[in-house]
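Methods — Computational structure assignment.
A single polypeptide chain was analysed. Its primary sequence is given first, followed by the predicted tertiary structure written as structure tokens.
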Amino acid sequence: MNRPIPVEQALGLLQENALTLPSRQVPLSEAAGCRLAEPVISRVTQPPAAVSAMDGFAVRLADVRAPGATLAVIGTAPAGTPFTGLLKPGQAVRIFTGGHLPPGADHIVIQEDAEISGDQVRCLRGYAASEFVRAAGIDFSEGERLLNTGAILTPAALSLVAAANHGHLQVTRRPRVGILANGDELRPPGSELRPGQVINANAAGLSALIASWGGDPVDLGIASDSMASILDHVQSADVDLFVPVGGASVGDHDHMRAAFRESGFEPIFEKIAVKPGKPTWFSRRGAQRVLGLPGNPASAFVCAHLFVRPLLTGHFVLPSLTATLAAPLPANGAREEFLRARVHVSPQGLLLADAAPNQDSSLLKPFLTANGLIRRPAHAPAGMTGAAVPVLLIGQL
């Protein structure tokens, strides 16, 4: 149990013990950022019929293969008011973007290619194939599965389900994530510090990350270095996932794991063979989970990206891009390592990864410019400038 496990094994155990949350029905106006509790099946076909992609004239392609064809305009088809008559040879219908093609029409002559004279239109060019027609169902069809269970409702997803004629959705509520700091030396931001005291800097950043991943962060405050204090914070918290930070190393005053065990949490794993973040641990009690992070800021942030994010998003495969090293790297040690790096596109179009020169796990400042993590296998040889490396994006390019 105490032997560090590989990163991929840890991710597999997280997936096996994923969060299970109750669902509820909400209107679309309240669904942004929520996660679907069931698939979304389209109730309509979009578009429901062939429609015009441009303003112009609906015609029969056979009538306009040669330039100069003159057709009789017999009606109008604006969006929302279809022309119901049958288009016969030699006829055209004035149509606007989104308007349904009348029966018999299979082509649009755009208005830029037309000359109008009274109730007649002259086509200035000929056409070899149908143009400017959006076929029925080109976007999606009635009965089509548009989104799967677990999908996060982004602005694009909400527009899609609205177009599919859903006014309400069954969603899981946001997981409540309790962030618990631990240490007699810690004080909240804005405090006056005495010698030996430090600011609890982790909670603010972790709260922002958790919210960005669809969680509802809850600051559980700072527990002192005693079992009683930790137990008091744990037993009074109503959360789905505890994220204790610190208090899980090998010191005489590190009581975090023991406090959760005493509260009935069953250990799943206790260490990961990863740098930074070896003391990361995971336990469960019923529907509740606890993912303990190291106390050093860089370790906490890196491990939050690697392990907290999958628990909240439901995606347990770490997304990876291939980049080119902008500078050499030394050989790696016995643990898989994730190096903070700036990932950017060179003037030549190469995706470059430039590792921060100081990877000290106590440093926060390198995260200001780091938007990626270079992933290095255990015992990886030295990496030369120009070598290909996998990177995980943790920010915008």
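Note: Residues 54 and 97 are 5 Å apart (CA to CA).
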